[in-house]
Amino acid sequence: MDHTLGNARRMGPGYMPMLVFWLELGLGAIVFIMAFFGGTDPLERWTKIDFVTLALALGGGLVAYPLLNAVPALSNNWYALGIAITIGLFILAISPGWRVLALVLAGMNIFGVLLDAGGLFLAIAVMVVVAAFADKQHRPLGVAACVVFLIALCWWVFIYELDIRVNIWPTFF
């Protein structure tokens, strides 16, 4: 929000992120609306554990946030919120109906929390490992290969080619 947008002829540093945001928002709205009218799978009935874990996840995240925000190292940034959301998603993953969605979202959330202090390599590795638990038949060798491939690809694209300045190694040690 602090970057100037510019225009299509003379783009500022905030132009592309804002453009990508609006494109993703539009595509997400289209997919959301189309989900109501199409699809081959009927909606499953929610079971009692689905409701209970959803309530516990919301409560756990709402309780964890003020507690984490009271920690001085976490109070001046978004880490407390990210960790609280991750706790809620792990609670939500207890339910078989929410398991896949919760673990994939938890992996992406952990990536965001770890990226700054943990570095790109650790953030990618933890994200892939957590998200891999969403599939009951995941193979450890396949997960390790995915981690290595994504680390190499992200290093090549973001660090080498685009020259984006992000830590690649942990800085909290």
Key attributes of the depicted protein:
6 helices, 69% helix, mainly alpha, 173 residues
Describe the largest sheet.
none
Number of strands: 0
Q: Write the element-wise H/E pattern from the N-terminal end onward.
A: HHHHHH
How far is the N terminus from the C terminus? 31 Å
Q: If you compute it from the alpha carbons, what radius of gyration comes out, rounded to the nearest whole angstrom?
A: 19 Å
Name the average pLDDT.
88
> Could you say which overall geometry the principal axes of the C-alpha atoms support?
globular
Topology:
Blueprint (H helix, E strand, L loop, with lengths): L14 H23 L10 H22 L2 H4 L3 H14 L6 H34 L7 H22 L12
Structural description of this entry:
The radius of gyration is 19 Å and the shape is globular. The mean pLDDT is 88. Helix content is 69%, strand content 0%. With 173 residues, the protein is mainly α.
